[in-house]
Write a structure and sequence with these properties.
The chain has 101 residues and is mainly α. It has six helices and no strands. The protein is 47% helix and 0% strand. The two termini are 18 Å apart. Heme c binds at residues 27, 31, 76.
Length: 101
């Protein structure tokens, strides 16, 4: 399901934070909810990608395998370097949460 259709099928802005996944993946080491830090805020990511049809798959892939920097000079490290493997289901949960910001 793409992010846009996820939002129109009942997912509302402000999904509950998947705290255990956020902690496991050390998301807050580089991101914050509402202000740029070492990486863009979750709100900035949501604003940029929320209505892009291919964004959800791209972001899930980037969460799991890492990827080049789109916001500066710091690339996204792979999940194994952030806190251990990340399943496709867990990446999906995190992306839905970020896009709901």
């Amino acid at each position: 399901m793409c992010a846009a259709s996820a939002l129109t099928t009942g997912l509302a802005y402000g999904e509950p934070e998947p705290s255990a996944l956020v902690d496991q993946q050390h998301c807050m080491f580089c991101h914050t909810r509402d202000a740029p830090f070492l990486a863009p805020s979750f709100q900035q990511i949501a604003e940029r990608y929320r209505n892009s049809p291919d964004a959800q798959a791209m972001l899930e892939h980037k969460l799991r395998l890492g990827g080049k920097a789109h916001w500066g000079d710091t690339p996204m490290p792979p999940a194994a370097e952030r806190g251990g493997p990340l399943s496709a289901e867990d990446a999906h949960t995190l992306v839905l949460w970020v896009l709901s910001q």
